[in-house]
Design brief:
It comes from Aquilegia coerulea. Its cofactor is heme. Belongs to the cytochrome P450 family. 55% of the residues lie in helices and 9% in strands. By secondary structure, it is of the alpha+beta class. The chain has one domain: Cytochrome P450 (Cytochrome p450). The strands form five sheets. Strands 1-2-7-4 form a four-stranded mixed sheet. The chain has a three-stranded antiparallel sheet with strand order 3-13-10. Strand 11 and strand 12 form a beta hairpin. Helix 5 packs antiparallel against helix 9, helix 7 packs parallel to helix 19 and helix 8 packs antiparallel against helix 13.
């Protein structure tokens, strides 16, 4: 051969690098080639906004229909509740996850429920619905969560709170990291019957957690590519981020297989965890592995994200923390450390606080579907076949047309009528999705968050080390705060809540 393979590969790599540089230049100069803001550069959001989602919120506010079309990304983004209902309910069949999405997350999620459509999705959803709706599984989840709080979360924060109390500072730690460990332990125990022990006082890291974090991060980066050609080319020649992704997914697969094999060796007929229940109906271990990974994604990052944002908000609104404590004192006994399952239903203000937190900081900031056929949305937007159509809960929570002139304010009272919690339409509040794909784990996630909030605020003052810091989110499948949330932990019996 006149040219060696190495020479050709080197030449092609140089060409690809130049091509990528050209795409980046185009991305910077024409990112927002949309109907209402063709004069904006992609760099503008970096200069004027903390997060890309804030920039999109700005653009969507300026649109008369609250829908924009990013032509260069072939992406329609909307905050119109009528459009959301149309996509998720009225014309559901025309807006599946779609092959482009499945391709992006397929290496990680495989045939798991969050990455499939059609019969496979229907089967997994039916199975999950039957199990998650049962009284026994909810009781088991409550037991797992309260056990993790009592034996690990409270002792960990107590050790930090007491460490430097003599000088009035208390200990410091990353609350986001703590909640990710807590949620990972809880979802592993609930879903698979295994205990990774990430929240022990020594704060060890699970190999599965590390590999899963990296795989999730790199999979999300695929979605940020201007063209799928870029990551597919890197995967074809196995270099850069795609090489790291393959290694991380291989580790996740090995560890997930170990979980399944261990459960088979120990027997699953009399176990309460979710995996054991699925194994009674599914014999395909590869399919089970995909289900395992999907439950990890659903049960860890979303809960940790919601809790982190919630405690940041409490630090900004001490009067809300006081009101939660007052409500809990009315419902719980003075010496009671852990709330009961029944008592949770008697705390509408806490429910309102959590909903209000996720209105402003949804754990999943946006979600996309892909149009099967040409269509027209209720607001008149034409959707060409194959177009990505995104509804944006983060931006929707900041729309005055939906939530009123005080949309930007944290006001739990907006969810209460005569002291009772009243839910809003899921299509104007699609934090848990809506329609046929509404989140099946919603009630258990809320239960978990309520238990954590009540247990911690009754015993500790949790104060960010940077009061008033703005939340900056890293790109990912769920909302993750860049740099975490460093906080100081103080024992409440020594440092009372300031009067308001």
């Amino acid at each position: 051969m006149k040219y060696s393979f190495a020479y050709l590969f080197f030449t092609f790599t140089i060409f690809f690098s130049l091509f990528s540089l050209l795409l980046f230049f185009l991305r910077v100069n024409f990112w927002c080639n949309c109907d209402i803001c063709s004069n904006y550069l992609s760099a503008k959001w970096v200069l004027d906004f903390n997060n890309l989602c804030d920039w999109y919120t700005h653009l969507l506010r300026k649109s008369p229909t609250h829908t924009i079309h990013i032509h260069v990304l072939n992406n329609i983004i909307t905050t119109n509740p009528d459009n959301v209902e149309y996509m998720l309910k009225t014309n559901f069949d025309n807006y599946p996850k779609g092959k482009p999405f499945s391709s992006i997350l397929g290496d990680l999620l495989g045939r798991g429920i969050f990455n499939v459509d059609g019969d496979s999705w229907k089967f997994q959803r039916k199975m999950a619905s039957l199990e998650l709706g049962s009284v026994s599984i909810r009781s088991y989840a409550f037991e797992v969560v309260t056990n993790e709080i009592t034996l690990r979360l409270i002792p960990l924060l107590s050790s930090i709170a007491n460490k430097d109390y003599h000088n009035g500072n208390g200990g410091v730690l990353d609350l986001q990291d703590v909640f990710r460990r807590f949620a990972f332990d809880s979802i592993c125990r609930f879903s698979f019957g295994i205990d990774p022990g990430c929240l022990k006082l020594s704060l060890p890291m699970s190999d599965l957690a590390v590999a899963f974090d990296l795989a999730s991060k790199l999979s999300a980066e695929r979605a940020l590519s201007l063209s799928p050609f870029i990551w597919k080319f890197k995967r074809l020649f196995m270099f850069g981020s795609e090489k790291k992704l393959k290694e991380a997914i291989s580790m996740v697969n090995v560890l997930a297989d170990e979980v399944i094999n261990q459960r088979r060796r120990l027997g699953f007929a009399n176990h309460q965890d979710l995996l054991s229940r699925f194994m009674a109906s599914v014999n395909d271990d590869k399919y089970l592995k995909d289900i395992v990974i999907s439950f990890l994604l659903a049960g860890r990052d979303t809960v940790a994200s919601g809790l982190t944002s919630f405690f940041w908000l409490l630090s900004q609104y001490p009067e809300v923390e006081s009101a939660i404590l007052a409500e809990s004192n009315r419902v719980m006994k003075p010496s009671q450390e852990i709330v009961s399952f029944e008592q949770l239903r008697e705390m509408p203000y806490l429910q309102a606080c959590l909903y209000e937190c996720m209105r402003l900081f949804p754990p999943v900031q946006f979600d996309s579907k892909f149009a099967q056929e040409d269509d027209v949305l209720p607001d008149g937007t034409f959707v060409k076949k194959g177009t990505r159509v995104t509804y944006h809960p983060y931006a929707m929570g900041r729309m005055e047309e939906i939530w009123g002139l005080n949309a930007h304010e944290f006001k739990p009272e907006r969810w209460l009528i005569d002291g009772n919690f009243v839910a809003q339409s899921p299509f104007k509040y699609p934090v848990f999705q809506a329609g046929l794909r509404v989140c099946l784990g919603k009630e258990m996630a809320l239960m978990e968050m309520k238990c954590v909030v009540l247990s911690l605020i009754k015993q500790f003052r949790i104060i960010p080390t940077e009061p008033g810091m703005a939340l900056r989110f890293a790109p990912g499948l769920t909302a993750t705060i860049r740099g975490g949330l460093p906080i100081r932990v103080l024992d409440r019996k020594n440092i009372p809540l300031p009067s308001t």
